[in-house]
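Researcher: Go.
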Amino acid sequence: MPNLPQVLLTSTGNVLEVTGNKLAGDGYYGHSDGLHTVAWALNNFKGRIKIQATLALEPSESDWCDIDLDLSGNGYVDFITATTGTKNYNFTGNWMWVRAQVIRSHDPSLTILNSGVVSHVWYNY
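Model: Structure:
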């Protein structure tokens, strides 16, 4: 039976950069299919969104790896122009933990006033 979607990250509001809390992944509960789904809602958002995962039961910062959701090889999804809407991605792996990050430091012209918000990042496995 599938799990109910969980919130990986709430609204970025007036924060330029944020790392969400970790949530248990498919591997944490011993599931064997490794299928995970993330979706986010954007409102005039410019910046990068990362989904990170780890195999470590008690991870340190160096245990996290970036998931290449859009197969670009970057390890993040980049929104160069203001984007509004909802987008979802699937990825596989028997990950113990999953988290989301919003990053805008790569572009010094981005501010709270001109880079919109990530309303939510949802997650299911």
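Model: The longest strand covers residues 35-54.
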